[in-house]
Amino acid sequence: MHAVCYIPHRLSNDSTVERTQRANDSMSNIELDIEWTEAASRKIEKMMPCGANKDAYLALPPIECLPMEGDVLFLGPSGKQQPFIVAERQYHHDGDTDWTIILILDIPHETH
Questions:
Q1: With a threshold of 0.90, does the pTM exceed it?
Q2: Taking the alpha carbons of 57, 11, 37, 77 in that order, is the dihedral positive or negative?
């Protein structure tokens, strides 16, 4: 099991609010969260220090096509994106129709 660190970064997806509102009429309320392994935490913190830019954010794909375990996301500032692997995808039922999807991100491991 990987140690997991939480680094708050604003998640951005322009159409999530609209889709979530439509989905609320007939589906669950879904919240997305990202957690990081220690190695990934160090890497993203170097790329996007929490105190350096309060407007820093990570944009993610729409909730309908979230990455699965093993998928690679290229995250970071424009022109400096780095690969992160979805090590785990968790679903947490928060009661009634409320759910949280957690993506645990790690860095690629080089094989020699």
A1: no
A2: negative
